[in-house]
Design brief:
Strand content: 15-25%
Order of helices and strands: EHEHEHEHHEHEHEEEHE
Strand order of the largest sheet: 1-2-3-4-5-6-9
Number of strands: 10
Shape: globular
Radius of gyration: 17 Å
Number of helices: 8
Helix content: 25-40%
CATH architecture: Alpha-Beta Barrel
Number of domains: 1
CATH class: Alpha Beta
CATH topology: TIM Barrel
Largest sheet: 7 strands, parallel, barrel
Structural class: alpha/beta
Length: about 260
C-alpha cells in the first residue's frame, strides 16, 4: 500500500506564524501552500516552496477567499466567474514563485475553507472553479474529499482527482464533511484520529458521524498542522502507516501523468 500524507502549510502572514511547517515537512510527502488570499504572503510562499523542494515534497496550491481576517472560513458571495479568476490568480502567484525556486510545475491544488465547502455543495460554483484550474494546467491534480461537486466537475472536465481523507474531520453517511457548526465535526482527540486512520488502512472504511461504516477509497491523508499536538500526531500517523507495511510517497507518484 502506498499513500500520500499532505498538510496545509505556509499559512502564516508577515511575522505571524501558523503551525510548525518545518517539523511537518519532515513527515508529509506533499504540501498544500497558501497563496496569499486566506493566508500566506510572497515571502512565506517562497520560503515554504523552497523548503518543500529541499525535502523532496510535492508543491501544490491551497486557494481560498481573499479573507485574511477570517482565515478564509467566511463565505463571500460573488459571481462564480469572478471567483474562478481568484483561483487562477492564486495559482499563478504560487507557480511563479515555485518556478523561480526551481520547481518545474505545481503538482496539485486544493480548495480551502469556505470556498471549498461552497464548491463542494454546488456544481454551479465547482464547475467554473475547476475549469480555471484546467485552463491553468490540465495536468494539475485536484485534491478533494470524496462525493463532492468538485469531484464531479473534475471528472466531467477530464481532470485527475486524488480523493483525500481528512483524519480530524467527521463525515456524514454520504461521504460529505460534516459542518463545523455541529458538535464533533472536528475531532480533537489524538487517539481518536489515529484510530480513524488505522481503520482506513485496515479495511478501507471510515465510521461516519452517525456511527455507520462507509467505504472510502483515498490516495491521500490530510494532516492539519495548526492544531495542538499536530506534529506528534502526524508522526504517529506516519508510523502507523509504515508499521502496517505501507509506504508514504508524494502524490505525483500515485497519479499517472
Amino acid at each position: 500500500m502506498q499513500i500520500d500524507l499532505n498538510a496545509d502549510l505556509g499559512e502564516g502572514f508577515g511575522p505571524y506564524r501558523m503551525g510548525e511547517d518545518e517539523a511537518m515537512m519532515d513527515i508529509v510527502s506533499s504540501a498544500n501552500i497558501a497563496c496569499g488570499y486566506h493566508a500566506g504572503d510572497p515571502v512565506i510562499m517562497d520560503k515554504t516552496v523552497r523548503l518543500a523542494l529541499e525535502k523532496g515534497i510535492d508543491v501544490g496550491a491551497h486557494v481560498g477567499f481573499p479573507d485574511l481576517l477570517g482565515f478564509g472560513r467566511r463565505q463571500i458571495q460573488a459571481d462564480p466567474l469572478e471567483l474562478a479568476k481568484y483561483v487562477l490568480y492564486q495559482m499563478g502567484a504560487l507557480a511563479g514563485i515555485a518556478k523561480a525556486a526551481g520547481a518545474a510545475r505545481l503538482t496539485h491544488m486544493s480548495f480551502h475553507g469556505a470556498l471549498g465547502n461552497m464548491a463542494a455543495a454546488s456544481y454551479e460554483l465547482a464547475e467554473p472553479l475547476v475549469r480555471a484550474v484546467a485552463d491553468f494546467d490540465r495536468d494539475v491534480v485536484i485534491s478533494v474529499s470524496t462525493n463532492t461537486q468538485i469531484e464531479r466537475a473534475a471528472y466531467k472536465l477530464g481532470m485527475q482527482v486524488a480523493n483525500t481523507f481528512l483524519a480530524d474531520r467527521a463525515y456524514d453517511d454520504n461521504g460529505n464533511l460534516v459542518s463545523r457548526k455541529l458538535e464533533g465535526a472536528v475531532i480533537k482527540d489524538g487517539a481518536a484520529v489515529l484510530a480513524r486512520v488505522q481503520q482506513l488502512l485496515e479495511d478501507g472504511t471510515v465510521t461516519t458521524h452517525s456511527g455507520k461504516r462507509l467505504t472510502m477509497a483515498v490516495k491521500s491523508i490530510l494532516l492539519h498542522g495548526d492544531t495542538p499536538g499536530a506534529v506528534e500526531l502526524a508522526r504517529t500517523v506516519r508510523s502507523a502507516i509504515e508499521t502496517a507495511g505501507g509506504r508514504v510517497v508524494p502524490l505525483s507518484r500515485l497519479i499517472a501523468p
